[in-house]
Amino acid sequence: MNVREPVTTHRARVLALSGIATFLAAWCVMSYADLVPTVILPSPTEVLRAFPVLHFEEALVRSIGRSLYRVYMGFALAAAVAIPLGLLMGTFPAIKHFFQPLLDPLRFLPISALVPLFIVWFGIDEMQKIVFLFVGIVVYLLPLVVEAVENVDDVYLQTATTLGASKTQLVRHVLVPGSLPAIGEALRVMNGIGWTYVILAEVVNARYGLGYLITVAGKRSHVDQIFALVLVILVIGVVTDWLIRMVNRSLFAWAE
């Protein structure tokens, strides 16, 4: 292998399958050969057996639906705030400098530290969980939107200005279209952030939800169920990531 040597599509698929097969083989060896205690690493068989238990006894499907609702409500609210505000901040430096001292420190705030505060402000029902996810996503999405707007090449702005474009036309026909592909990619990344925070969001007073089920399984020391639930989250994350990627590729094919 050479530094940054291109990999063919066929070879990339073979390498990916090999990586998955190696991981599964190592898991099987360590679990079935009792190299690692079951309480730490359950076998693939035990994890598969946990799915019917979760489905029939713990309402797995309903919990998946509830987590999807919470994550994508927070995701939608974050996008509704971060995209317009980010476009303004990226377009007009004066607006950016006004908000920057207030927003930049939020990226370093441990989001879990806000849970008690959100309970006081929004109670312990759905609103608290959605606002928690909204804040967790928006503080990372907003800087990416601003960066996407700022990365639009000045050549396009200068050309449009030379042709007589107004300020509104510069924003509408140059900055917004030019930044949308990067914003679409930022939304794909934020999809992963949402599923990272859903566990914390569902710790407090959640009757259903994947985070709630993981918390309950942990209290009962059902490690096989924890592995199964983590696998569910990974599958949902991969599928939704693929869907967003396909939408971006369809909408912004011209950017490639």
Question: Could you tell me the strand content as a percent range?
Answer: under 5%
**Run of helices and strands:** HHHHHHHHHH
Q: What structural class do you assign from the helix and strand content? A: mainly alpha
Strand segment count: 0
**Helical stretch tally:** 10
User: Regarding quaternary structure, how should these chains be classified?
Assistant: single chain
How would a crystallographer describe the biggest sheet?
Answer: none
What overall geometry do the principal axes of the alpha carbons give? globular
* Euclidean distance between termini CA atoms: 27 Å
pLDDT averaged over residues:
86
The rounded Rg comes to 23 Å
Low-confidence stretches: none
Helix content estimate: over 70%
Describe this entry's structure for a reader:
With 256 residues, this protein is mainly alpha-helical. The two termini are 27 Å apart.
Topology overview:
Layout: H1 9-32, H2 44-57, H3 60-91, H4 93-103, H5 115-122, H6 126-150, H7 154-162, H8 167-201, H9 210-219, H10 223-251
Helix pairs in contact: 2-10, 3-4, 3-6, 3-8, 3-9, 5-6, 6-8, 8-9, 8-10, 9-10
